[in-house]
Amino acid sequence: MTTSTLIERNGIEIIPESERTAKPSDLFWPWFAANVSVFGMSYGSFVLGFGISFWQATIVSIVGIVLSFVLCGFIAIAGKRGSAPTMVLSRAAFGVEGQKVPGIMSWIVSIGWETLLAILAVLATSTVLTQLGIANESNDTFIKILATVIVAALIVTASVLGYHTIMKLQAVLTWVTGIITVIYIFLTVGKIDFEAVMAVPAGSMTAVIGALVMVMTGFGLGWINIAADWSRYQRRDAKDSSIVFWNTIGGSVANIILVTFGLLLAASDPTLNAAIAADPVGALATILPIWALIPFLLTAILALVSGAVLGIYSSGLTLLSLGIKISRPKAAAIDGVILTLGTIYVVFFATDFLGPFQSFLITLGVPLAAWAGILIADIFTRRAVYDEDALFDKKGIYGAWDWVSVGTLIGATIIGWGFVQNNFAADAAWNNWQGYLLGLVGGKEGEWGYANLGVLFALVIGFVVTFIFRRGVIRRQEAA
């Protein structure tokens, strides 16, 4: 495929050298555009929900955002070295068939994220149009249906067109959404009550760690399973440090500013803080003057669509890596149908989605963290480039199954789930089975009960076990 072709035809195959022309700095645009969303401000409310002070929350947010996107940058190195999607490159660690275990998990995570962003866009549309007097009880259903159709169409169209279209789109959206977001901050800065902000009491160290885990899973770890998808068009001679740097800067800069401002708003106004739980983006529109609502709505939708486009594009690639024999555009379209159905269900039938969503994040955050630890250790250990043919041949040097990696993923996940628990038991009763090892650290109601240590445990276990026990296997692969 040439860059002039409207629809990207490349699927999960290795990108030809003639098409690997991207620069590390190009990675800034998709990551920044996907994260310069007012939804980031809502995390200020989520972080304060752990019962910590503004300063604790600020430090937690900065550390969690930067660290999680650094981990994304490490995964992106594999994309530059192998010029293939993340879940194909992961076959080097798990085997060609074994990769389907984390691949299915990755596909579910991507579908979940992109559906969430579409839901937020629809809810924000309804809230803003209600404030403008356009939407009311008589036509609210029609407004939501129309918003769902428009949002889904935008997301699916961009993802079907593919990499080159998305990269151009993200570069434009970065400026549009960035400028309007700055205007939003300017218009609402007067709502900040610094006395109320500083009066928020400090929380315990366990609460701080719990908030840190939530931030990491909500930001970088939520994207980590697709990080190499956007670096596979990079030149092979690009510096690894540059790949990590631009990935981290692109994902972190906007989020740090937005979450910090969100902390100030949420700590200043308990009513706004509570409203964010029901409609994270729409609630933020309620403090704007009427004339600013339309620009806010357009920016919010574009920013959320921008993030969803990255997710659905990559979920299509992941679907192909599982062995589905269809073209990449068709895979993206299938995921688009699933996204639309999920959005319709939540918008029209579910009574609450924020609690179940955060519960979902922690639950899938555990195996995702374990997988990330395994793959990062694999990337750090390898000295040679990937065997491109073997990534698609279960009889090649990577084999069909790498039982050390698969066993590590399962073991780290089992341990990790034992040290997390559902913080939203009433809203997500289906997820109350976790935390079966918390008795070792004081029980579910103990000091560490809600710190969600399992995510960090899974990440560390995955990395350490792989780094120690797969070194010999990797050296034999490289020698072959």
UniProtKB/TrEMBL annotation:
Domain of life (superkingdom): Bacteria
Protein name per its UniProtKB record: Allantoin permease
Spans traversing the lipid bilayer: 28-52, 59-79, 104-129, 141-163, 169-187, 199-224, 244-267, 332-351, 357-380, 400-420, 448-469
InterPro entries: Pur-cyt_permease, Pur-cyt_permease_Fcy2/21/22
Protein's UniProt keywords contain Nucleotide-binding: no
Species for this entry: Microbacterium mitrae
Keywords in alphabetical order: Membrane, Transmembrane, Transmembrane helix, Transport
Lineage: Bacteria, Bacillati, Actinomycetota, Actinomycetes, Micrococcales
GO CC entries: plasma membrane
Protein's cellular compartments: Membrane
PANTHER family associated with the record: PURINE-CYTOSINE PERMEASE FCY2-RELATED
